[in-house]
Design brief:
Number of strands: 24
Number of helices: 24
Structural class: alpha+beta
Radius of gyration: 42 Å
Shape: elongated
Largest sheet: 8 strands, mixed
Strand order of the largest sheet: 7-6-5-8-4-3-9-10
Distance between the termini: 115 Å
Strand content: 15-25%
């Protein structure tokens, strides 16, 4: 009895030990820490600490589904693109399997049929289809991509076939719930003899799989029970429009069931009887025998309703073909059709990028500028159409693929490395898009460079007239491509006549001792040609570029130099005209001769000028006003004054200090030099009048026009035989307050900070 008790106790201990070991070593699924992308627990790992418990994450499936669908897709209509792409993948898989096994796939197609009465939409393909296990594995697991698994299998088998599989993430199918209350999927694999049915409803936490009552030959049929607010997707016109928008370039035919009215000629019995009666009456009156067969039957037009499937994607993607296989006429037709243009493109480039990142693209330069190009309130242009494996994604990502200054470029970009549910955030942050953007910019600039080299110069001149401002904007915004852009910009010049000149052509025409490229900003070519700033340069045979558009001066100031030559604004100080030693010596002698005059004029003008100096750049004009090197020019002051939202405080500080340059060969300056020892009020008035006229001829705005008018009237009075006024203008006389004391002169703000340590001085 004692031995039996010991055996029973030993058996109980063994059972307890086995149960404890089984509990400790139970299978635990892999749990991934999403934020750190690392495995926390491995499968079937026993607990490391005694008493430790492990749990699996739980999820409210219906809520999770709602989050996935509504966060990935911002527009309901995207569902059709996703389901058609899935169908295309199924057809592509079947074609690949038949190619490898030597079978025949027959005619592969996708059909779409909507029914408003039953509120259903049916999407069907005759592709590879799914088995029971495939159905549960693909549609029963969220974010499980059958296409991705198929592609991995191909790679593991060493296959290099050129397939165009689209899906990657396994969530596209669930976009059907954006418009459907209930989704039913019937499918039959080509190697199976059974048709299986998968069914689920919006908000449900599960799904049902059973053998289908309806028998399919092969492929997959999806039936959507549409929501009340999505009945538009049962209309054939809407379905056709969505197919043409998103799936026009899918390689398999997409047929949409539709009804259309076609004219048909049918006999008109009533009109025929009337014609017979009239013919009979005429025969009786004429005494002739009447024959009814001689009267031709009268026809009428009736419209017949024809129902059936019609292919909606007959256009083939031009960019997937090799450039050498495409004719020029095809590029023009594609450009006009895709972008609703009526003129042929001025230029185009067709290229493929291969390597770590692959994409294909065709870019076009429009033949004319859009009518609203300068309208700041116009809608953003939709010039770049983004495709992913021939499936249209969006035309609103142009800013992410091309910079603002190239926004006039139109084209298509087809990537193999972007997901179908790509968003603006993905484009902005992704490395793929950064690489694509660099290549697109380089190809665009190369295309423009080829256009500039065209033997017919009128083509590029017309392009520059339309889009030259965009290229100059690029000099401001794109420092990495300044060199390429500097080769493309054009300007009028003192030697170009009615045509435009490039910086390269300017450099070729430079004088032997010329060290700088000279430019002058003005409102018109005529005004620039008559400006006193260019008198001395033209006399020396130096060429001056005329900057006639508001953006020109900012662009060249930002460029700073070209081909080793500094770009210099001749309306500013310190312009090097390439004087030889004799000219420099003569200038020094003139400065000594007119030293007293320059001091006197500086004292009379006060804070209106920084200094008065002797100039060698003038021809006939007695004087000009230049500005300091780092301040605004007269042209820029005028532009900034015209800004509706300009900052008056910054305007005061950015104004350049004015420097008055006098012409020693002018009779007026010689007269003032003779009378500068003891200047009377008349001399002072002449100095002030010289300053005001220099303000006008140099492009500035006179701050006190009334004083200027007073001096002009005084001179007119003197020329008419009257006595010249020796009184000071009102603005120069001291105002006296009611107490009899002189009021203090208003403090003038120096437009630039003067400091010994200022590196910009």
């Amino acid at each position: 009895a004692r031995q039996n008790q010991l055996k029973m106790l030993s058996s109980r201990r063994a059972v307890a030990s086995g149960a404890a070991h089984a509990l400790a070593s139970r299978k635990i699924k892999t749990v991934v820490n999403a934020s750190r992308n690392r495995t926390v627990y491995s499968a079937a790992a026993p607990p490391e600490t005694e008493g430790e418990e492990k749990f699996e994450y739980q999820a409210e499936v219906s809520r999770l589904m709602d989050l996935i669908v509504n966060s990935l897709y911002s527009s309901k209509e995207i569902f059709l693109r996703e389901l058609v792409s899935n169908a295309s993948d199924a057809l592509d898989k079947l074609r690949f399997e038949n190619l490898t096994s030597g079978g025949s796939a027959g005619e592969l197609e996708i059909t779409i049929q909507g029914d408003k009465d039953s509120k259903t939409l049916v999407i069907q393909d005759n592709g590879v289809g799914m088995t029971h296990d495939d159905l549960v594995d693909a549609l029963g697991t969220i974010a499980k991509s059958g296409t991705a698994s198929f592609m991995e299998k191909m790679k593991s088998n060493g296959s290099d076939s050129d397939t165009n599989l689209i899906g990657q993430f396994g969530v596209g199918f669930y976009s059907a719930f954006l418009v459907a209350e209930k989704v039913t999927v019937m499918t039959k694999n080509k190697n199976s003899d059974k048709t299986w049915q998968w069914e689920s409803s919006m908000g449900a936490s599960g799904y049902v799989v059973r053998e289908a009552e309806e028998e399919l030959d092969q492929g997959t049929k999806i039936v959507l029970q549409l929501k009340e607010d999505a009945l538009e997707f049962a209309e054939s016109s809407r379905l056709c429009q969505l197919v043409k928008t998103y799936s026009e370039f899918i390689s398999f035919p997409i047929k949409v069931y539709s009804e259309k009215q076609e004219p048909k000629q049918v006999p008109d019995a009533e009109a025929t009887a009337k014609a017979i009666e009239e013919a009979k009456k005429k025969a009786e009156e004429a005494g002739e025998e009447f024959k009814e067969d001689s009267v031709e039957q009268v026809m009428k037009t009736e419209f017949e309703t024809i129902k059936g499937f019609e292919v909606q994607n007959e256009n083939k993607p031009l960019w997937v073909r090799a450039p050498r296989e495409v004719e020029e006429e095809e590029y023009g037709a594609f450009f006009k059709m895709t972008f609703k243009e009526f003129m042929d493109p001025a230029a185009h480039t067709h290229f493929n990028v291969e390597g770590d990142i692959e994409f294909r693209s065709i870019l076009f330069v429009p033949g004319m500028a859009p009518f609203d190009q300068n309208d700041m309130n116009a809608a953003k242009p939709k010039n770049i159409k983004l495709f992913v494996k021939r499936v249209f994604i969006s035309d609103e990502f142009g800013e992410e693929l091309l910079p603002r200054y190239l926004s006039f470029i139109k084209g298509v970009v087809d990537s193999s490395d972007l997901p179908l549910n790509v968003s603006r955030e993905i484009l902005q942050e992704g490395r793929v898009v950064r690489v694509m953007k660099r290549r697109l910019i380089a190809k665009s600039l190369a295309m423009l460079k080829d256009l500039a080299k065209d033997e017919d110069a009128t083509k590029y001149n017309l392009f520059h007239e339309n889009f030259g401002r965009n290229l100059k904007l690029g000099l401001i915004e794109d420092k990495d491509n300044m060199k390429e852009l500097s080769e493309l910009i054009r300007f009028s010049s003192s030697q170009s006549g009615d045509s435009l000149t490039s910086l390269a052509d300017y450099v070729k025409r430079m004088k032997e001792n010329q060290k700088q490229i000279y430019f002058l900003a003005a409102s018109s070519k005529e005004g620039a040609a008559k400006s006193p700033f260019i008198e001395g340069l033209l006399k020396r045979g130096l060429e001056v570029l005329y900057l006639l558009e508001p953006i020109d001066e900012v662009a060249l100031t930002n460029l700073q130099e070209y081909d080793g030559y500094k770009l210099v604004d001749i309306s500013k100080e310190e312009v090097d005209l390439g004087e030889d030693e004799d000219e420099k010596k003569e200038k020094e002698e003139k400065e000594k001769e007119y030293e007293s005059l320059t001091k006197m004029m500086t004292e009379i003008l006060g804070d209106k000028v920084e200094k008065v100096v002797v100039s060698t750049r003038l021809g006939e004009s007695p004087c000009i006003l230049t500005t300091s090197k780092f301040g605004w020019s007269a042209n820029m002051e005028r532009i900034m004054r015209a800004q509706a939202m300009g900052d008056t405080k910054s305007y005061e500080y950015m104004k350049g200090r004015k420097i008055m340059e006098i012409n020693p060969s002018s009779p007026i300056i010689s007269y003032l030099n003779e009378n500068c020892a003891s200047p009377d009020q008349a001399v002072k008035n002449q100095v002030e009048l010289l300053f005001d006229t220099a303000m006008l001829t140099s492009g500035f705005i006179i701050e006190e026009p009334a004083d200027f008018a007073t001096r002009i009237f005084s001179m007119m009075n003197m020329s008419a035989g009257g006595v010249p006024s020796t009184e000071k203008p009102k603005s120069e006389t001291k105002e006296t307050s009611s107490t009899g004391k002189d009021e203090a002169k208003p403090v003038t703000v120096d437009p630039e900070v003067l400091d010994e340590g200022d590196p910009w001085k």
